[in-house]
Every structure is written in C-alpha cells, then in structure tokens.
Design goal:
alpha+beta, 2 domains, five-stranded antiparallel sheet, 5 strands, elongated
C-alpha cells in the first residue's frame, strides 16, 4: 500500500465518521428536546450503540492527527491535488444543510404517527372493554362513597387491565363534594378491607388536575359532554373517556408512559 491509498482510506473513514457523528448528535438533541417518540425499543438500543462504533472509527484526535500527517506526506512525495472544485463544495454544502430540516421533519412525522396510533389504540381499548363488560361498567356508574363500591371498583378495574395485554393504567373519575366544595375523585387501588375500623376519606381520593382538565370534567359532569380528551407529552399519554347512561356519568381515565416511541405501538 502506498501513502496515497492510505491517505484516501483514512480521509474517507474520518469524514464519514464525523458526518455520522454530527447527524447522530442532531437526532439525539431533537428527540430529547422535543420528546419525539419514533423508534422501537430494539432499534433505539442499536441507535445508541452506534455511537460507540463511530467513536471507535474516529479513535479520538489521534486518528485525525495521523490523517493530516499522512496527507502532508502524500502531498509532498506524490504531489497529489486534493482540492475539490468549488462548485462541488457548494453542492455538498447545500445538500448537507438541507438534510437537517429533512431529518427533523421525518422525526416530527414519526412522532405524530406514534401519538395518533396511541390515541386510536386507547380509545378502541376503552370502547371494547366497556361494551364487552356492560354489567361491570354499570356497577361503576352506581357511585356512592362506600367501601363496598370502592372495593368493587378496584376489582373491576383489575379485570379490565388484565383483559387486554396492551391495556394501560386505568382509574375511575367521579364528581363529589367535600364541605360544600366541588371536587373530582379518582379511584383505582384501595388498601383497606371491608368493614375496616379505619374508614376511607374522600380527601385521600381527590384527583389532582390542571385547569384545562377541570374545565373538561366540568363540561362532562355538568353539561353532559360526551367527548373524549386525549393528550400526549414526552411519552406520557392520557385519555379521559366519559361513560354516560341513564343520567349517570363516570369518566374512565387511562394513562400510559412509553419510554420508547414506535410507529405501530
């Protein structure tokens, strides 16, 4: 192998490694800052591991120094012309610059599709569970702040969760009053026992909500709004699913956290 060949090989490896590293950093920053969920878990792991391979190819500043030293030696002895035409440089620069917004758009589109599929999956699961368990769903409608209803609700929700392997965390939201103040209560787990000496307290079941969520729940419980509310933020998905029947209303609240985003989830 002559110096000219070594220079070409080292230049190609170095340039490709640097470009891949720049793209990797851009993608990593994009998915971290904007919370994009695009990759499947195994693809994500491979993506992270790829940086190790890139760094191995670069081998730090030592490889860069060796590359330039070989270039100087080759130019001195073989008088190679390594200059790239200005027009070619301009084209490469334009392509390189355009590639970043294209990558960002692809990441944004992948995240949008992931969120959309997640919403459809949650709504479909909620509808299916309620329609296939009408008797149990009707028991949830008969809300009263008593141990019997709370324990029964826990058992019903546990059955719901085990029915569908993709079913996320679910709880039941009802409206009530504490000291003449309107509150929304959320029920899922209950650690007491029937006829326990320590009775449940409403304040222990108060649902923490945002202003937008309270406005939505107000419309559902007091204006009979029969419309779902879905939100997604940084891998956390939330769905409020109203169930209205015979003048009675409850809201099934689904929440799921997805560390890895994937189209088709």
């Amino acid at each position: 192998m002559n110096n000219k060949f070594l220079v070409k090989v080292s230049n190609i490896i170095g340039i490709i490694s640097i470009i891949l590293l720049v793209y990797w950093v851009f993608v990593f920053i994009s998915i971290t800052v904007f919370g994009f969920k695009v990759f499947r878990e195994n693809i994500t792991e491979t993506f992270y591991l790829s940086i190790v391979g890139i760094l191995a190819l670069m081998a730090g500043s030592l490889i860069i120094n060796v590359m330039f030293n070989l270039t100087r030696i080759a130019e001195k002895h073989n008088q190679d012309d390594l200059n790239i035409p200005k027009k070619m440089n301009k084209k490469i620069g334009i392509i390189f610059g355009i590639s970043f917004p294209i990558i960002f758009i692809l990441l944004f589109g992948g995240d949008y599709l992931t969120t959309e599929k997640k919403e459809k999956m949650l709504i479909s699961s909620a509808k299916s569970i309620i329609e296939n368990n009408v008797e149990k769903s009707d028991r949830l409608l008969n809300y009263s702040f008593k141990e019997n209803w709370i324990i029964d609700t826990e058992e019903i929700l546990d059955i719901y969760s085990k029915t569908d392997k993709h079913f996320p965390f679910v709880s039941v939201i009802v409206n009530d009053n504490i000291d003449k103040s309107k509150v929304f209560l959320g029920f899922r787990s209950y650690y007491g026992e029937l006829n326990d000496s320590i009775q449940p307290k409403k304040k222990d079941f108060i649902l923490k909500t945002t202003k937008e969520e309270r406005e939505y729940l107000d419309n559902v419980f007091f204006k009979n709004l029969d419309k779902v509310r879905f939100s997604a933020s940084d891998g956390k998905y939330e769905l409020f699913y109203p169930y209205l029947k015979n003048g009675k209303i409850i809201v099934l609240y689904f929440s799921d956290y997805q560390r890895y985003g994937k189209i088709g989830s």
